[in-house]
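Quick illustration, no need to memorize.
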Amino acid sequence: MESTLDKSTLKNLIFDLGDVIIPIDLSAPVRNFAMLANLPEEEVRAIWKQHDLFDQYETGLIDDEAFRGHVRRLLNNADWADEVIDTTWNTVLLDLPIERIERIKELRTDYRLFLLSNTSPIHIRRVNQVLANMNQPTLEELFEHVFYSYEVRLAKPSPEIYQHVLTEAGLVAQETAFFDDNAANIRTAAELGIQAVHVQPPMTILDYLKDI
């Protein structure tokens, strides 16, 4: 497998979360909210897009409570409990392969490790719960520093979020590898001089980390 990494200069590894560390199904929340609300999936998808709920929540413009309130209002289900909304929202998250976590733990010996994710607090709480159930460290313990879009109020592929990570962590772009499944995210990182690796199926992050 061809690698774009220059291992002679590599000191830092930045990981995306969804579809890099934990497999995801992006269509699952809309599909499941549609079932709960007894509405056509396309209608719910259109509502989501029109009101830009994902981006607002993932960039911290609205908090958990406001997000849930918007979901109830837009889908006309005022009596949905927080737990129902959170559980449905978290259906995007699939089973977490423990071997990926074990490999990341091994890499801590030789590299500075970071997480950079467009995500929401409900998702992060759930991933950390899954990790705890597997007797694994939380994301905040696994990485030297985590950068969540909702905390930094920026999102990939904006160049500003990469610059924020480099500055905040004191990283040199050329000494840093970034692993992401999204082509636009990879492109922007590469333009800033970061060694950007596009994680694409059928390969997983383990394939790209094999020779590091």
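The longest helix spans residues 121-133.
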